[in-house]
Amino acid sequence: MTRYPQENIKPYDQNGNKTAQVEMMFNHIAPTYDRLNHLLSWGIDKYWRRKAIQRLKPFSPKQIMDVATGTGDFAIQACSMLHPSKLIGTDISESMMDIAREKVRQKGLEKQISFAKEDCTALSFREEQFDAITVAFGVRNFDNLDLALKEMHRVLKRNGHLVILELSDPKSFPIKQLYNLYSNIIIPFFGKILSKDNCAYNYLPQSIKAFPQGEIMQDIIRKAGFSDVSFQRLTFGICTLYFATK
Asked: Fewer CB near the last or first residue (10 Å), C or N of the chain?
């Protein structure tokens, strides 16, 4: 399988295991993650999530898996918009999912939404179990993108759908220059102050820049076995929405 540049970008020790480091990073920043996420994105992340979930509305998926679910914002929003019978959020960080579980408890959604620690490159679920799989702002953290996509393809039902949201590097002037300034200076500065993690918010812009985007990512998804793969750039190319069918 192909190794992609972002798989070599790691939060702490460049020679260490990426999955273990990403787990440690998110466990560490979990208490401040939501606050920083909404602050540094100026709240636009909520619009991006809504756009992604709307792509699934015509298909009314009943069984959904939200990969790299984090603190559960996407899972909760998907549940409220799509009304599935079951939605399971998976992640490698228990600290992030503990926050997600509390949000779900407060909203009374425990019967619809559950969470489980899962490695996306070796999912424990049976073949063709889910009608839809979503990943919001998590694929660039995967240690093996090809294997993770193949696993998601395996557990997705025939004619099921994959939705991926990921931050991307805008290409047009002057958005590219302004975004580079924001992501390379402002985000690490505030991230360091508020999260008390010197590395996590330096890792963020590095992993975005290294991640395959647009047509390249479209081909990678197609190579994993998906068909009808399309993508849409959002907010001047700061975020990209990928949509695929099994």
From this structure: N
